[in-house]
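Colleagues,

For the teaching module next term, I've prepared a clean inverse folding example: a structure given as tokens, and then the sequence designed for it. I'd like students to try predicting residues themselves before seeing the answer, so please don't circulate the second half yet.
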């Protein structure tokens, strides 16, 4: 008896020692499960909540809290994987005994009898190798985890950690990936397919082996039915259903140039952007983004078709930007005609000369100084002599595009027909120092020349930056900083919003005078190719020397657009590829399609109440208390105040 007792004590000490030995090896591993912070996918949404892209680091995982997981999913999972889950304490001893018997008969480890808790441990902490030592560690961890975490917490971790095939981690990711549905919208059959996947994710992947996935799902349904967890009707309907399964790329990147800009803008403040599980809400309108891309391609193909031998357009590309007039929000941003061929974002990263599309800023300064749209300006030729960097005397004799001049003409006509000579003479009338100071210190232009070449837009600027300046006209006086990111929400539900920034440049009545002149550009001037029936559009063409750059900067009462085309290598596009012919049609396409897409779009520009309308020389003209009408030209003195 003494020997037996001694043997039992020694055996107990030995077993305890072995257990303690294994426990010391794994005790800290439980922390990974208790303080569960997995890598999570960051999602980018447009202004209407439509998914633009998923960004992730190796594991595509969109988290689902336990309360967001339908009870049917829990029932299906427990039915097929661990029926006694809510009764055991992490280890199912009955199942282990049955497995041991089978293992002894087979003379090898053939059945593991793992609970969901043990499966989670194998996935997160231990290897899947079939060894006694690993099994002991697994059991010890299972007991510890179940003393600290609730069953609901374990299930939440399991359903978010497990791999569901096709690159999807977590059940919410799999639901959105395979079925394009949130968890609440899944059918019973779709749930059964999902919970059947973790057993062999690649083999049961419904995008590759749909029949096997169906067969596995049916076994899940049979098990649920046999347990009485679904009735006969539910069972039969689920068996007969064949869900639609989607096979798509994991990133779902529907606006790559935009996503690249988001990454760049957030790189410093969110170093864990790809793994932090952020929800990023943009100002972008995905429908308008697709429309902008169509519009860009429309003009691109037209330009290419006119150069059949590709003598001038081998490196042709373009950019398109659309902003909300009321706040500067970016509604669309396309940085090139084909992202797959070039990731370079021409909307934000290139600096191209704006040409005559810069002229409206000169005219706005003139308007704010008291000029009016009917003020005369001299469209006459002048010759300028200057010394270059080597002190050699040079001669500059600028010309109009039409190679003629018309003498005195009103500002409205000069801008509508983009008269270079009239604009240069207007700059001289204003004074170069006055103009330069206004453009740089007040408007905020950078790197512009302090000489008369500024009249022709001879400096570099990106389409998005130019769009910010054009918001002065589109918004009736405010220069808005463009905004792409509205808010960011982290994995804990905490949110950070990004506000709207702007600077008042001029009074709305003064801005409207320039808007009315820009409307004349489209109605009767160089931008007639952009006119769309049923909606008022204002804007300005821009063409640089030798047709290297072609622009159209235009806006409706609600949306501003900037279209640019040029060769990436800065070579000419062809003699006839002007802003009107090359870039204008893309803006026309955009607004024409917009009216069909959104027929309730505002169509007419508002006239500020303090604007004065008077007929001069038989034509309607607008004035303000600053930009007064010429007394000698007034035909009717009866003022109409709007």
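(Answer key — instructors only)
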């Amino acid at each position: 008896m003494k020997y037996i007792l001694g043997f039992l004590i020694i055996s107990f000490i030995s077993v305890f020692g072995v257990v303690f030995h294994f426990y010391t090896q794994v005790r800290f591993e439980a922390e990974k499960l208790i303080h569960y912070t997995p890598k999570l996918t960051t999602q980018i949404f447009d202004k209407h909540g439509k998914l633009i892209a998923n960004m992730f680091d190796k594991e595509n995982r969109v988290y689902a809290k336990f309360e967001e997981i339908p009870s049917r999913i829990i029932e299906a999972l427990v039915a097929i994987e661990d029926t006694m889950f809510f009764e055991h304490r992490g280890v199912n001893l009955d199942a282990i005994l049955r497995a041991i018997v089978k293992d002894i008969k087979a003379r090898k480890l053939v059945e593991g009898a793992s609970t969901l808790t043990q499966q989670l441990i194998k996935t997160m902490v231990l290897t899947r190798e079939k060894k006694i030592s690993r099994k002991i560690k697994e059991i010890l961890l299972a007991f510890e985890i179940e003393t600290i975490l609730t069953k609901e917490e374990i299930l939440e971790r399991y359903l978010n950690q497990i791999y569901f095939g096709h690159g999807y981690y977590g059940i919410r990711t799999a639901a959105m990936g395979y079925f394009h549905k949130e968890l609440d919208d899944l059918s019973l059959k779709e749930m059964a397919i999902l919970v059947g996947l973790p057993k062999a994710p690649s083999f049961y992947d419904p995008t590759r082996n749909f029949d096997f996935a169906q067969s596995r799902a049916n076994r899940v349904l049979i098990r649920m039915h046999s347990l009485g967890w679904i009735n006969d009707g539910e069972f039969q309907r689920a068996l007969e259903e064949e869900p639609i399964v989607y096979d798509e790329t994991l990133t779902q990147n529907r606006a790559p140039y935009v996503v690249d800009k988001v990454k760049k803008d957030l790189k410093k403040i969110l170093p864990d952007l790809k793994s932090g599980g952020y929800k990023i809400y943009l100002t972008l309108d995905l429908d308008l983004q697709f429309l902008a891309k169509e519009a860009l391609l429309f003009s691109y193909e037209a330009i290419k078709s006119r150069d059949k031998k590709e003598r001038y357009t081998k490196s042709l590309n373009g950019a398109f930007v659309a902003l909300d007039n009321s706040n500067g929000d970016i509604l669309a941003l396309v940085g090139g005609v084909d992202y797959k061929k070039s990731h370079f974002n021409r909307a934000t990263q290139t600096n191209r000369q704006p040409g005559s599309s810069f002229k409206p800023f000169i005219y706005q300064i003139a308007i704010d100084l008291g000029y009016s749209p009917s003020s005369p300006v001299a469209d006459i030729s002048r010759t300028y002599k200057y010394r270059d960097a080597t002190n050699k005397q040079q001669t500059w004799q600028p010309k109009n595009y039409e190679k003629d001049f018309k003498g005195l003409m009103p500002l409205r006509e000069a801008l509508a027909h983009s008269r270079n000579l009239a604009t240069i003479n207007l700059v001289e009338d204003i004074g170069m120092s006055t103009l330069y100071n206004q453009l740089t210190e007040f408007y905020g232009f950078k790197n512009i020349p302090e000489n008369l070449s500024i009249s022709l837009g001879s400096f570099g600027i990106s389409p998005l930056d130019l769009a910010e300046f054009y918001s002065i006209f589109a918004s009736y006086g405010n220069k808005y900083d463009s905004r792409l990111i509205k808010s960011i929400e982290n994995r804990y539900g905490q949110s950070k919003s990004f506000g709207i920034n702007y600077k008042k440049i001029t009074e709305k009545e003064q801005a409207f005078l320039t808007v009315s002149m820009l409307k004349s550009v489209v109605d009767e001037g160089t931008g007639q190719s952009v006119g769309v029936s049923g909606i008022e559009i204002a804007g300005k063409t821009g063409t640089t020397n030798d047709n290297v750059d072609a622009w159209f900067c235009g806006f409706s009462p609600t949306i501003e657009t900037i279209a640019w085309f040029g060769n990436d290598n800065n070579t000419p596009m062809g003699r006839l590829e002007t802003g009107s012919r090359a870039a204008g049609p893309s803006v026309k396409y955009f607004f024409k399609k917009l009216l069909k897409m959104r027929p309730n779009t505002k169509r007419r520009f508002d006239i500020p109440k303090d604007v004065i309308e008077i007929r001069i020389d038989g034509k309607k003209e607008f004035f303000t208390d600053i930009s007064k009408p010429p007394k000698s030209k007034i035909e009717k003195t009866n003022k109409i105040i709007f």
